[in-house]
Design goal:
With about 140 residues, this protein is α+β, with helices and mostly antiparallel strands. It is built from five helices and four strands.
Length: about 140
């Protein structure tokens, strides 16, 4: 009896784990908000490194059609300290498949930044001066439904 129960428990667990309650869309644009909280006094350095090393990669992805748009924001005022962020990048991908597409990424980065040692060092520095970074996949809510 315990073997049957164990087998049934395994089957139910696999079924539940296999279900994706938050299934990703397969068609249409998909937007993700990328939040950055920069260590005090390092925002200018972070922004300079972002514009130098990461923004060209994003622009190249727009040119090849993977991304539909890249927009960056700074808050006008400070928050309450619970979820403060200093820099927000909102990227709209062509579709969910484009979010997961990494084909040729290394080659494109090498083409943009032939001095890989310098590029990797600067990208490491960009993340060293962060207090936090989080990504928020966004699903539009149709308020008319």
């Amino acid at each position: 009896m315990s073997r049957i129960f164990s087998l049934l428990l395994i089957i139910v667990t696999l079924f539940i784990a296999g279900r994706n309650v938050y299934a990703q869309p397969t068609e249409g644009p998909y937007t993700i908000a990328y939040y950055y909280k920069v260590r005090w006094g390092y925002f200018d350095e972070f922004l300079q490194l972002f514009k130098k090393n990461h923004y060209p990669v994003l622009k190249a992805d727009v040119e090849r059609g993977k991304l539909l748009s890249v927009k960056a924001y700074q808050p006008q005022f400070h928050g309450d300290g619970h979820a403060d962020w200093h820099f927000l990048v909102v990227i709209t991908y062509k579709n969910w498949a484009a979010v997961r597409d990494t084909v040729g990424a290394s080659a494109r980065i090498l083409k943009l930044f032939p001095d890989q040692e310098k590029y990797k060092k600067e990208e490491q520095r960009r993340f060293e001066i962060l207090d936090a970074h989080w990504d928020v996949p966004l699903t539009e809510v149709d308020l008319e439904k």
